[in-house]
Amino acid sequence: MQTNTGSHLDPNTELYVWNKLFTRQTQYLQGKVWDGFFDSLAQLCLEAGRLPDWQTLHGQLYRATGWGIHAVNGLVPARQYLTFLSNGVFPVNPTLRSLEDLDHAKEPDLFHDIFGHLHLLFIPEYVAYIRQLSGFALNYLDNEKALYLLAQFNKWTTEFGLIRKGDQLGIYGAGLVSSFGEAQHVMSNASEKWPADVSLMLNTPHQPAQLQPQYFVIPSFEWLAESLPAVERFIHAV
Ligand SMILES: [Fe+2]
């Protein structure tokens, strides 16, 4: 996999920012992610020295996983977002963060959506989970409390989840995979790692825009879909 330093690139270009982000993350994440992560990047033809080509990316993703991508600007309404997911389409913001925002994108950007999320679609057990979760959430669009709890569960899994790899931990959450600072934080002793537990996850609010004091470790990707009946029971009980 190409991991050049990009020292020859113009700092005022998107390619420079992409190169910086891609190189830094791929170097840091070696040995710290779920086992298929780097293979999925290769299957998507993602590289440090080239901005993702939309058609190539869509084609590679579709051939490998059956999923497509669709360009959306910024955050989209819940109904639209969930409908995309339940239909096997992943919404991607085509805008890349600026060099000034290298460490903290103001909202999910091209790097977060592509580098952070698309690898998850190569995990059949994750796909079963996210399609069930999004279809489930579509039934609760008029229930603010239920939507909040489902979003919270998704934060602790899709965005900030870890998986047990023998006696080690593997990052799989998009917000960790795509963030240099939070990936370092989660792998350090500065944060606690708790075994995944539905009630605990739904009773532990995710604090936006800051590093978390704790993260949750799933025992396997099968655990995600298997946990959904317990999530539903929790929602019905509140
Ligand atoms: Fe995300």
Brief overview:
The chain has about 240 residues and is α/β, with parallel strands linked by helices. The protein has helices at about 15-30, 35-45, 55-65, 80-85, 110-115, 125-140, 145-160, 175, 180-185, 200-205, 220-225, 230-235; strands at about 70, 90, 160-165, 170, 190-195, 215-220.
What does this entry look like structurally?
This protein has twelve helices and six strands. It has helices spanning 14-28, 37-43, 54-65, 78-86, 110-117, 124-138, 144-159, 174-177, 180-186, 198-203, 222-226, 228-237; strands spanning 68-71, 89-92, 162-165, 168-171, 192-195, 214-218. The relative contact order is 0.13. α4 crosses α6 (124-138). Strands 4-3-6-5 form a four-stranded mixed β-sheet, with no helix packed on it. It has a two-stranded parallel ribbon with strand order 1-2. With 238 residues, the protein is an alpha/beta fold. The model has no long low-confidence stretch (mean pLDDT 94). It is 48% helix and 11% strand. The chain has a single domain (14-237), classed as Phenylalanine Hydroxylase (Orthogonal Bundle), CATH 1.10.800. Bound molecules: fe (ii) ion.
